[in-house]
Amino acid sequence: MRLIKSLQQTLLILLVSLPVAVFAEAEIETLEISDEAEVDIRVFKADGDKLLLGFACDEGQSVAEEATAMSLAEDGVEVWMPDMLGGYMLPKTRSSIYSIPSEGLYSVIERAMETGKKVFLIASGPDTELVLRVANEWEAKHDGEAAGLAGVVLMFPRLNEGKPEPGKEPEYVEAVGKTKEVPLLLLEGERTPNRWGVKHLTTALAASGSHVHAKLIPDVRGYFFKRQDANMPEEVVTTQLAGLIKASLFFLGRTD
Amino acid sequence: MKKLLILLLLVFTLPAVAGLKPYEGEGATPPLKLVDMQGNTHDLAEYKGKVVLVQFWATYCPPCREEMPSMNRLMEKMGDTPFVILAVNMGETMEEVEPFVKEVGPEFPILMDPDGESIGAWQVFAAPSNFVVGADGKIHYTLFGGVEWDDDEIVTKLKELSGS
To answer: Do A24 and A71 contact (CB within 8 A), yes or no?
Structure first.
């Protein structure tokens, strides 16, 4: 009985200390963007030739994101998580993404490209609008070419303009369908109503020429890796999120 | 000025509109022929002469789960009005749907569409998506998102549509 209690205590201590241990593995790099803005970037260093830039806007503070970044780094994919909102002293609200100056985002991408690695962007939910906008503007800035941007991963993209109307085709935010060269990969949970819009969104995203892959993740709901009420399949996929993202980068690489 | 203020006050204190929107889509009502959980086939065309609420839902959609009990109450409130609900499940299996159906006990058929065949035809991109088909077989209203279906305003509109 005492042994079980001791084991329970040990397990509890391990669980409580896990986020701290994970957080300790990342380095913080500060990027001076202008006289007014400095962006802190959490960097999970790796030796491989791929670099994943996660515009979660808040340095990816959730435990699943940290663990995933760690796991990716162990597998050779370097992960950068810039705190764009903090850098521009913007409140952590959804609407703040519209206030992030494009120049700041370019600076982060340019710094990432200085490493010589293939740079991929990743975002989930409404933040996918931001990465699409950045990819689009990046191409526009480089005469319509990807200019080193190897691809964009859109996890559970929420890109509808307004509420969907039954019986009508969805309308999307302006950033959709503008990219010409940068390949895109869309991931959606199988157990989310949005899965029924994946085909339509894929077509819309490819409108200007980008090659678009779409994958459904079996048995999971949207944002499963952030859920407090995650079920067993969602917990399993969360632990394998790094593998899923690595596979996504592989698919994006195939269109090079 | 005072009148304007009173008018504005009235506008902003009116009860919220229940949410049925006049249908703006084009073309004929798409076909709908599916089998319910008991194995009976339902063909929308055979319900001509009745008002039909066609709902696309899924157990993984929280608003769908929340509003279904109010659909039972709507059935009750509609009384003898020629009215039917056809609730189309979006791509799930019987094993996934059964526990929820047992819990809620819908008093209307749950149609199964495991391959999502009807979803494309009806241009459904999110859930719950609702279509109100009139006795003439045409779509008159749509509604996206969860509502309390036994809301008096909805009941009145549905009864008006049936001619009752």
So the answer is: no
CB contact (8 A) between residue A191 and residue B127: no
Count Cβ atoms below 10 Å from residue A151 Cβ, excluding itself: 28
pLDDT in tens, B33-73: 999 999 999 999 999 999 999 999 998 888 999 999 999 99
Q: Is residue A22 part of a domain?
A: no
d(CA B159, nearest CA chain A) in Å: 22
Q: Is the pTM of the predicted complex or chain greater than 0.90?
A: no
Q: Classify B51-164 by CATH class.
A: alpha beta
Mutant choice from A156, A161, A163, A165 vs B, greatest count of B C-beta within 10 A: A165
Please report, for the domain that includes residue A44, its CATH number: 3.40.50.1820
Is the ipTM above a cut-off of 0.90? no
Yes or no, beta carbons of A196 and B119 under 8 Å apart? yes
What pLDDT digit, counting tens, does each position of A38-85 carry?
999 999 999 999 999 997 655 455 557 788 899 999 999 999 999 888
A167–B119 CB contact, under 8 Å: no
User: Which of B25, B91, B144 faces A164 most closely, judged by CB atoms?
Assistant: B144
C-alpha to C-alpha distances, B79 to B49, B82, B83, B110, B136, nearest whole angstrom = 16, 8, 9, 20, 20
Domain count, chain A: 1
